[in-house]
Amino acid sequence: MTVSLHALCFDAIDPVRVAAFWAGVLGWELADDPHDGTVLLPDDETGFRLRFLATEEQKSSQNLMHFDLTSTSLEDQQQKVALALALGGRHVDVGQRPDEGQVVLGDPEGNEFCVIEPGNNFLADCGFVGAVSGDGSQAVGYFWSKALGWPLVWDQDEETAIRSPHGGPKVTWGGPPLMPKLGRSRVRFDLVSPVHGDLQAEVTRLVSLGATRVDGGGGEGEASEVRMADPDGNEFSLRVAGAA
To answer: The organism sits in which domain of life (predicted)?
Structure first.
């Protein structure tokens, strides 16, 4: 059975603080889970949770993955920006042009996200979390479409996007030129295999699609979690549902 996208993981110096920020921005429930630690539970059709994992490594470069949050009017956009700033966010410069309608912000640890201007047709039916927007190749879009079993909803000029058949946000990749990857991905996917599934069979399937193992590849028979990377080298984890 195809794996599912369980969570989007954020490395954080202060996971509770960053989680509280996103709980305030998104309106999602903040919880402590025995398997996942500090998490946010979606209250919409997003379908995946947010996990916040402790790290001692400071953020040193622009993330290759970020949220695009939607707005319904200019006033709504301004209110959402004001809320994010009041919760500890800040404006950040990622090279955006002054005439762009989106507002680029960072959370308390600088993880970038955009509040998109109203009237964006591409995200029109996607909800508040309109997209998880990634810097990535066309090949990586094809990989994730096959890995998750989500259809391609955009494939043009080497830009790709996929979306769950059940709705929710799109996951997009902007195509070349690609930003250099500097170190471990600070924001990354956490996949789960069904509790009755064969984890090693899923590893083999993902490798056949273009993924690689980055955890040394030992102990396959007993492993409950495997660290992997997609064709662009972006890390992700794969584990059996319910495994810590």
So the answer is: Bacteria
State how far the Cα of 169 lies from the Cα of 131, in Å rounded to an integer. Answer: 5
Output the pTM of the full model. Answer: 0.94
Structure tokens at 75: 């006033």
Q: Give the CA dihedral 209, 159, 129, 47, nearest 10 degrees.
A: -20
Whether cis (ω within 30° of 0) applies to the bond prior to 177 is yes
Which domains, ranges and CATH numbers included, belong to the chain? 188-240 (3.30.720)
**Locus of tokens 């949770």:** 49
Q: Computed from CA positions of residues 197, 200, 206, 208, in that sequence, does the dihedral angle turn out positive or negative? A: negative
SS3 content of the chain, % helix, strand, coil (to 5): 20, 35, 45
Residues 45-49, mean pLDDT to the nearest whole number: 91
Which residues, in sequence order, are CB contacts of 86 under 8 Å at separation 6+? Answer: none
Distance CA 82, CA 242 (A): 38
CA atoms within 13 A on the CB side of 156: 2
In the chain, the N- to C-terminal Cα span, in Å, equals: 20
Which own/partner contact pairs does 221-229 have at CB distance under 8 Å and 24+ positions apart?
223/199, 224/199, 226/199, 228/203
Joined together, the tokens standing for residue 212 give 């690689």
